[in-house]
Amino acid sequence: MPCFICTTCGVQYAETDRPPERCPVCEDERQYVGWDGQQWTTLEVLRARHTNVFRHEGPGLTGIGTEPAFAIGQRALLVRDPAFPLLWDCVTLVDDATVSAIQAAGGLRAIAISHPHYYSAVVEWARAFEVPAYLHAADRDWVMRPDPAIVLWEGETLALAEGITLIRCGGHFPGATVLHWAAGAEGRGALLSGDVLQVGQDRRSVSFMRSYPNYIPLGGGAVRRLADALAPYRFDQIYGAFWSRNVTAEGSDVVRRSVERYLRAIGP
Prior knowledge:
Layout: E1 5-6, H1 24-27, E2 40-41, H2 43-49, E3 51-58, E4 61-67, E5 76-79, E6 86-88, H3 96-104, E7 110-112, H4 122-129, E8 133-136, E9 150-153, E10 157-161, E11 164-168, E12 177-181, H5 184-187, E13 190-194, E14 198-199, E15 206-207, E16 209-211, E17 216-217, H6 220-230, E18 237-240, E19 246-247, H7 251-266
Parallel strand pairs: 6-7, 7-8, 8-9, 13-18
Antiparallel strand pairs: 1-2, 3-4, 4-5, 5-6, 10-11, 11-12, 12-13, 14-15, 16-17, 18-19
Helix pairs in contact: 6-7
């Protein structure tokens, strides 16, 4: 039986003989059902119509995106840490060419996902590389394809390896997570944020939302908690969810200034 994929959010569901009646991920207020109604596809169809491309995104970081763009259109990041290479966030398409390219670059030790909108086909990725996929347990209800490869971690931080730490920030989702790579940015530290912190178009700021497509802001308390979660970490660069949406200098100060600006804008 196929594992159907929602064409709007790109999340793959457990095996069924026919498409699910609905996509709870898209029906949630943070997302939306496509304007033409709920539609489904399969990985086999995606492989016939789309390909993945690889691009340099920063020191030790390779972006992986799908062309033509599919679903939300995020790109994943291959973290080429010599001791612990991993995939940050996911795209839905995984095929033989993608697996071969990543294996040639050093393979994977793990996958980590920032939040449910990017769960995509994480089980397919985990099985292809025979590695665990780390998702925060606070978002367990959004796992649409349960599998033993999924590791639901708990708490506020998780050290995957020396200098590679998952940080629960909350906000966008209760378990919304970022990744701190101490060796990133040539030793100055990098933060891989997905859109838990959305890098602004000026690439000198970040912002925070409960829903980006439906323009629902986060409250001040949630933003302060996010800032507190990041305060112990230093990072020079921030890598967002989309091609080239990256802050290339003074990342920790950018977050601090952006939090202050955001709190001024929303008022008391």
